Each structure stands twice: as C-alpha cells, then as structure tokens.
C-alpha cells in the first residue's frame, strides 16, 4: 500500500515490473529480446497456420506459377547468354530491334546446323550405346566375379560364408528387372492416361513456343525493369534495393554464363581425350559430360560412370588412360578454366554447393538440381543485405561503441 501511495496512481513501480527480466536465467537467455523473439515466432507460426488452412485460395496463383516457370526460366537463361552480344551490337550503333533480330537469326542458324550436321550422328551413337550398355554392364560384372574367384579374397569370403557371386547376380537381376518394370510401367501409364500425356506434351510445346516472345521483350526492355521496380519503392529504400538488384544480376549472370562456358570446355576436352585413347562412343560420352557438367561436382561424377564401365570391358589399359584423361581435364578445369571464367563472384563453399544440390534435388527434382545454385546465390545476396541493415539498426541504438557491429 505504501508503494502504491508513493507511486500515486496504484501501478507497480517500474523496478518491480522489470524484476522478471532482470533475473540471471532470463538475462542469460536474452531478457526482453527473448520475449520479443518468441512473440515474433508465434505470430509467424500463426500466419503459416492460417495460410495453410486457406491454401485453396492460392491455387490459381500456383497454376499460374507452374505455367510461367518453364518458359520464364528458359527465357532468363537465354537472356543472360545473349545480353553481352546484344550490348556489343548496340555499342556498334546497331538499332536495338535489329540487333535482337540478328541474334535470333544467328541462334536459329546454329540450331539448324547442329540438327542437320551433328544430331543424326549423336542419335545413332546414343541408340547403339543404349542397346549395348546392358552387355557392357554384364561383362563388367562377370569380370569382377572372375577376379574375385582368382584372388585371395575368395578364401576370406568363404570363411564368412559370403557368396559374392550370388550377390552380384542378384544385383544385376534386380537392376534389369527394375529397368524393365519401369519402362513397362511408363508404357502402361502412357497408354492408360494418353489424354493427360497429350495435354502435358502440349503444355511443354506451348511453353517452348512462348520462350522467343518472352526473350524478345527481355532483350528489348530488360534494362528498364530495375528502374520500374525502383520507381514504385519508397525513396528511402531505393539505394539499398538498387544495390541488391545489381548484385543479384551479377551473381545470376556470372553463374549462367560461366557455368555454360565451363560445361562446353569440359565437353570439348573430354571428347578430344576420349578420341585420343580410342574409347567407343566418344562423342556421345563427351556430349553427356558437357550436359551433366551444368551441375557442379555431382554432374561430372555422373558423366564418368558409363565411360568407366565401357573402358573396363575393353581393357585395363583403357581404364588407366580414362583416369589420366579425366584427371587432366579436372585439373585444367579447376585451375585454369573456372577461375578465369567464373572468378570468385559466387564465393560458395563446395560443401555448401553439394548440400544445396542434394536438398533442392530432393525437393524439386531435376529443376531443383539445375536452379538450386543460382537460387541459393540470390537468397544469399538478399539475406546478407538484410543482415547488414539489421546491424546498422542495432548500432544506431547501441550507446556503447565497443559493443557495436563492424559494418
């Protein structure tokens, strides 16, 4: 009662109100900051719960996203590949529309040349490789069994009653049956759901047809988009937003242009190496190496697997030659090509890249594997800028200069 009279209004004094937050345990956990964080997390969970209950309202947006994502991604990739050449033509005082038309004609000519000159040969080699690959795989399995039978491991396996011959045979049989069941299942699903298959194929074709139109407007008005976005933002936020967009543009363009150039270089070097050592299906295997190298680290490991199996069937000397070729290509790519083409613009640790690829691939499939790294690069830029702004805000309210962040 005396404290209430002293306060004059019947309220608890501020010292007693903050007694809970001044305890050692609560102070150790963060004090009032802990309370604010818990409330923010609770509100975030509540928002997610509400949105989950009314998710049907966003179904049209989901359909729109699924329709736009394929042509949009393809158009953006083509935009970043053609933009440097467009800027060169514009710098030579070629009108922008005519520069875009010239680029379209050049790309169309290159595609036609590849289809007429290269595609038939690659198609025949790929068809023969698919037909003969089971034979190669069975031959490798038989060689492994023969090697184990004539090695000192045979006695060791007999001591532990381990029948490796049966294990390898079961593995081969399971793989063959799995492949056969997969193809038969696909055939049945296509036969039973021909309408859905046709509609899906039609959607893909329509998406590919719309890519040139989207690409044209990106090339023609792509430089105006950042200015438009800045114009609708508050003036206070325009400087930071402009910096974020410039850095995102740099990250995405560096990755797309650099990764495709690196993949082409790897494909050319691998094809030349395969031809030198006399590996069968050298062009197909080199083309496969070029395509899979778009995915860092995991792609080259996938590409070398069929080459190893084919070289094992031919001779141990060819396997040694393949390892030498692969090592030389990886050294050239890692020490010369990638640092000079891509530089250190992404600055993502290799372990992080592998985890991002595995996670995005599990979530979104092939699209996640291809787009996981640029998506992570964009997210990294945004998060780093937001964190820098939070540090600035913290320093603004921190009176002790020794406890401020270094910005």
Give the tally of β-strands: 0
What class, by secondary structure content?
Answer: mainly alpha
Helix-strand topology string: HHHHHHHHHHHHHHHH
Our estimate of the beta-strand percent is: under 5%
Q: Which radius of gyration do the C-alpha atoms yield?
A: 30 Å
Oligomeric state of the chains in view: single chain
The poorly predicted ranges are: 1-6, 189-193
Largest sheet: none
Q: Fraction of residues in helices?
A: over 70%
Report, as a whole number of angstroms, the end-to-end distance: 51 Å
Task: Give a structural overview.
The protein has 16 helices and no strands. Residues 1-6 and 189-193 have low confidence and may be disordered. Helices cover 84% and strands 0% of the residues. It has a domain at 1-51. It has 407 residues and is mainly α.
Short description:
It is built from 16 helices and no strands. By secondary structure, it is mainly alpha-helical.
Write the layout of secondary structure elements.
Layout: H1 2-7, H2 14-17, H3 24-29, H4 32-53, H5 59-91, H6 96-149, H7 153-159, H8 164-192, H9 194-221, H10 224-232, H11 235-277, H12 282-292, H13 298-314, H14 316-341, H15 350-364, H16 366-397
Helix pairs in contact: 5-6, 5-9, 6-8, 6-13, 8-9, 11-12, 11-14, 11-16, 12-13, 13-14, 15-16
Question: What keyword list fits this structure?
Answer:
407 residues, mainly alpha, 16 helices, 0% strand, globular, disordered N terminus
């Amino acid at each position: 009662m005396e404290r209430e009279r002293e306060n004059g209004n019947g309220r608890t004094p501020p010292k007693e109100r903050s007694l809970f937050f001044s305890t050692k345990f609560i102070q150790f956990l963060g004090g009032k900051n802990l309370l604010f964080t818990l409330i923010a997390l609770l509100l975030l969970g509540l928002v997610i719960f509400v949105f989950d209950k009314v998710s049907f309202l966003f179904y049209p947006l989901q359909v729109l996203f699924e329709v736009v994502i394929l042509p949009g991604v393809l158009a953006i990739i083509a935009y970043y590949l053609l933009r440097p050449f467009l800027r060169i033509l514009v710098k030579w005082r070629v009108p922008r529309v005519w520069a875009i038309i010239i680029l379209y004609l050049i790309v169309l000519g290159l595609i036609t040349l590849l289809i007429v000159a290269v595609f038939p040969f690659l198609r025949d080699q790929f068809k023969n490789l698919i037909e003969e690959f089971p034979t190669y795989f069975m031959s490798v399995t038989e060689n492994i069994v023969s090697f184990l039978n004539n090695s000192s491991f045979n006695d060791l396996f007999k001591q532990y009653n381990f029948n490796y011959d049966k294990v390898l045979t079961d593995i081969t049989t399971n793989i063959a049956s799995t492949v056969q069941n997969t193809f038969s299942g696909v055939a049945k699903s296509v036969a039973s759901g021909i309408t859905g298959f046709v509609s899906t194929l039609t959607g893909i074709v329509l998406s590919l047809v719309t890519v040139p139109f989207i690409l044209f407007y990106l090339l023609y008005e792509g430089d105006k988009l950042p200015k438009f976005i800045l114009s609708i933002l508050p003036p206070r936020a325009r400087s930071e937003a402009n910096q974020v967009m410039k850095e995102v543009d740099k990250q995405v363009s560096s990755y797309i242009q650099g990764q495709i150039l690196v993949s082409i270089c790897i494909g050319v070097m691998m094809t030349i190496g395969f031809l030198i050592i006399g590996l069968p299906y050298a062009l197909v295997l080199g083309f496969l190496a070029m395509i899979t190298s778009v995915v860092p680290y995991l792609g080259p490991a996938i590409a070398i697997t069929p080459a190893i199996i084919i070289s094992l069937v031919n001779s141990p000397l060819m396997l040694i030659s393949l390892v030498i070729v692969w090592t030389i290509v990886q050294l050239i790519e890692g020490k010369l090509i990638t640092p000079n083409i891509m530089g250190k613009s992404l600055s993502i640790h290799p372990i992080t890249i592998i985890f991002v690829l595995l996670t995005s691939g599990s979530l979104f499939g092939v699209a996640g594997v291809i787009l996981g790294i640029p998506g992570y690069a964009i997210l990294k830029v945004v998060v780093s800028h937001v964190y820098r702004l939070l540090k600035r805000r913290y320093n603004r309210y921190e009176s002790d200069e020794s406890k401020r962040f270094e910005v």
